[in-house]
What does this fold into?
Amino acid sequence: MATIVPSRLPAKCTEGEARLHALLARLPEDCVVYYEPNLNGRHPDFVILSPQLGILVIEDKNWRPGTIVRGNLKSVTIRVNDQEKSVTHPIEQARAYREELQRVAERCRFGRHFLHLDGPHQGRLKFPVGQVVTLSNITSRQLDDPNRPLRDIFPAGQVVTRDQLEEWMDLSPQELLDTLKNCFSIHWSFNPLTETEIRALRALVHPEIDFDQRFSIESLDHTPRPIHDRQDVLKVLDLRQEECAASIGEGHRILYGVAGSGKTIILVTRARLLATINPNANILLVCYNRRLSHWLKRQLADLPRVTVSTFHQLAKRNGAIFEITASAETVGKQLLDRLRLGTRDSGAYDAILVDEAQDFEPVWFTCLLAAMKDPDDGDLLIVADGAQGIYKRSKVSWSKLGIKARGRTSSVRFDLDQNYRNSTEILTLAETFATRTESFDAPDDSIASLRVDPGRCVRSTGAAPLLFQEANRDSEEDRIIDIVGDLLKGLWNGGASAPLSPNEIGILYPS
It folds into this structure.
């Protein structure tokens, strides 16, 4: 089964798009299908990425025969609410989308990898990019009806009709892929796209998932060390994370995830998606930690309507007065008083996203609701893990705060119980000290603490944590110096590890 982003279509989708969504989900599992991706302001209905196929753009029209008044190969006049309207021919639409995709693929920073660098096809893509138009409510018989000269507008071989789509539902995944291959005007044999190449193409079609421009031609041209390959996955979200960011519904939503599951990255991606959907929306991303806020600001610096702030910065910006030693609850109450008086951020935001929610006092969430334009139904996304809380906070009751959490919490569905940060060996040790619960199911009315499960760890180094017991402090320090020296020289682990840089080594000590 293919991965479709988003996995659930919005309410505005047409019946035809819903049927196509169900059909394309039947493609082989190595295919990725996007619904209405943003291609520099253009939004094709579907884009398929396939290692065997290449790229296929699909434009669907939900028109019925009676909708079409007249047309030619450039434009079609349709009847909408008893009014005639001239629109671009869907074949022309699909062609424009295809050409835009080709242009982006050729000119992107890692596009050189996708081009023939010499020979008769120099400068052209190594894989095909095709287009097809589907008429999901018009049959072949209706196109050929002599009383409706529709076939001249929609030539055979350039459109797929409803009866054909229904026949395709009975095909196996590979048969469906082979059938779609016939939709290309030109298709040729090529080496199947690798997983890394598909990741790069995903970043073209869905640029919100591409983090801080680090995924470059170098990671395509050279095979990275296995441990770095998983780190690269986070620079371009993995499919489950991407699906999560794209499939989060409107309104109040709460995501729980273990440490290292990519919660913050999903939050940043969600902010970018919301800004793309509505460029005029005012969005607030708020967290507890100042260092995290600096990183978030760098990630979202190109989005002027996205404000990143710690909660304390938010309070100061709105004129809340408090001592540096004031409790978290006091800071929240001071800000709430200011917001209720109508200060600058009162009712200012279309969407608010919260990171590190486990460190927030209940009154802080009340403040955030007061900062929303629509506190009842506006976009409020909260991500948390009770097991990561480092401050003693009052217990949160979402319902008492007016946050509609019941039935709107997720963790396992989006693999947020999966750890990308630590190795299996490290998590096996960490589990000894971690919060233990019977399952990953999150309670609907409070912040969940998720169990760390080494079996849900993406990385494995094969190196277990080591314990050195020394006779005294001086011996400990000598041992540390020796270990650091070996790490810098690449002599650790029998010389099997590459030398580390000083900034890749951390030393913890009791203060």
